[in-house]
Each structure stands twice: as structure tokens, then as C-alpha cells.
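C-alpha cells please, single chain.
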Amino acid sequence: MPPPLIVRELGLVDYEPTLEAMRRFTAERDVNTPDELWLLEHPPVFTQGQAGKAEHLLAPGDIPVVQVERGGQVTYHGPGQLVAYLLMDLRRLDIGVRDLVTAMERSLVDVLAGYGIEASPRADAPGVYVGPAKIASLGLRIRRGCSFHGLALNVDMDMSPFRRINPCGYAGLAMTQMADLLDSAPSCQHAAGRLEQALRQQLGYTAGP
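Here you go.
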């Protein structure tokens, strides 16, 4: 029987309380706790992963910087970017971290293809790209066999804060978004529905409503 998945559409929520809620959920869950997928947007914030280096924060200015335990370097979150946090028991799913990353990348590629955007992952740099430009970022933390953090898909946002950092630690990395590639970008809510279904399919959860 496929496992259940609880999906929470949280809207626009502050980063730090959401981070604490993820940490608390992961610390308190047990073998019977259903997995959850949180779909949301954040107000402007830079997050610096475990591998993050200060020199990649070029000019954060008035945007806060939060140190976090996920993998990877610095990235930006802001309104119009779809964020998905995957709170999943990998042992119960019988998959490894690389399997989860691959499922996330394939889900993003499938969602973008549904909107007519040809995208692909890269072996040398986690994430999903349209040509040389990055459209989605990934960053996970595994604790006691369970994942938290997740992915961010640029839908229709102010991209200028990416110029204040070396995104994901790569100087000069081009960033793009769905709004730059389509005549009319979907809402984050619409893209979230498609992402939920793609993740369910890739990870073997029961179908959503």
C-alpha cells in the first residue's frame, strides 16, 4: 500500500518560524508519523547552507541572512518563488538521499515541461537548469533518516536580489524564472499543485485529491 502524504499549503510565511517548525517536526516524529510536504513562499531572505562562505554574500543590504543546516551554499527566497519542504522518512520509503534528490529534480523537470519549458539537472551542480541558467535550487538535511528543507522554484519574482550573492557559491551564475520564459507565468499556487502531483508520482505516495 502506498504511504500517505499530508500536504500543507502555507501561503506567504516568514522563514525563521518555518525553519523552527521543520526542525521541531523532524525531532519529534516517530516511525508512525505521516510524511508531509509544505508548499509556501517566503518574504525576502538569504539562507546560507552548511558549505556557505561569507565571500559569496556580496551585498546583502537590508535582506536578512539566516545560517541553516541544509547542504549547499547561499541562495535567495522571496515572494513569487515556490518553496517546497519535504519532511519524509527515507527509511520507510526505502530510498537513499541521492534517490530523493533525483526524484526532486525529475519532478521539477516534469512540472516545467508541463508549461512548455525544457529543463534538466546537471551532474556537477545540484538543481535544475534551462540552458546555462538555474531555475530551481535544492538543499536538504537528513536527521535520523528523515529529510527536511527541500527545493525552490523561481516562478514570478523580483530576481534582482540574486545579484547581491554568488548563487549557490557560483560567481556569475545566471538565474532565470518561469516568468522570463513564458508569455504568462502561472501562479505559485498553480505550480504547487503540479509539483505536488509530480512528487507523489516520483516517490510513490498515494494520489492526491
